[in-house]
Amino acid sequence: MKKCSCGEYSDIELIRKAINERIKKSKDLKKQLKLVSKSDTENILFVCEICNQFWQSSRAWNWGNDEYLFKVPIIELQDWIQNQFMAPDEMLIYSAGMSVYMESNINSFVDGNEKCIKDDCIEKSLKGGKLCKNHFIENLGVVGLIPKRPKGRLFKPYQD
């Protein structure tokens, strides 16, 4: 009979050491999981047939493209195929890049008096600009001045 060890794995803390450790443990963990679906990218969805915990596999390119698994919420297969979960290694790299940018530009983010020009946005634009902080940062990523936000859906415990 298969044994479930899902409870032995916590959510991955967004630090390099935690991702390193999960990469090392994922090969054994993967043996107890059932493949549910592969995406058209690198991601694979698994489930534990004993406890029904869902897991997503991703490759950590900044760690030599090694595969690792992380817990994800239960999701309908069609929803996952359309939009997988954001990988913790990508969140970590993005956060590090954004921290550097934010520290050196902290005084640039002062709200002005006008409304952001993006449709359906209710936030105030930045002083001297036309966009709110979130849309301004999004545009910086598009033109390559900061790291692009990782693709995928955020999930607990990584979303506020």
Would you kindly provide a written description of the structure presented here, covering whatever features stand out?
- With 160 residues, the chain is an alpha+beta fold.
- The protein has 2 domains: 6-84, no CATH class; 90-142, no CATH class.
- 31% of the residues lie in helices and 21% in strands.
- It has 4 helices and 6 strands; from the N terminus they run αββββααββα.
- The protein has helices at 16-31, 77-82, 88-104, 133-142; strands at residues 33-38, 44-48, 54-60, 66-72, 111-115, 124-126.
- Strands 1-2-3-4 form a 4-stranded antiparallel beta sheet.
- β3 (54-60) and β4 form a beta hairpin.
- The longest helix is centred in the middle third of the chain and has 17 residues, at 88-104.
- The protein is elongated and about 65 Å long.
- The model has no long low-confidence stretch (mean pLDDT 92).
Layout of helices and strands:
Layout: H1 16-31, E1 33-38, E2 44-48, E3 54-60, E4 66-72, H2 77-82, H3 88-104, E5 111-115, E6 124-126, H4 133-142
Antiparallel strand pairs: 1-2, 2-3, 3-4, 5-6
Strand content: 15-25%
Spans with pLDDT under 50 lasting ≥5 residues?
Answer: none
- Please give the count of helices: 4
Which structural category do the helix and sheet elements fall into? Answer: alpha+beta
Q: Give the end-to-end Cα distance, rounded to a whole number of Å.
A: 39 Å
Based on CA atoms alone, the radius of gyration comes out at 19 Å
**What is the subunit organization of this protein?**
single chain
> How many strands in all?
6
Shape: elongated
Q: Please tell me the total number of domains.
A: 2
Lateral arrangement of strands in the main beta sheet: 1-2-3-4
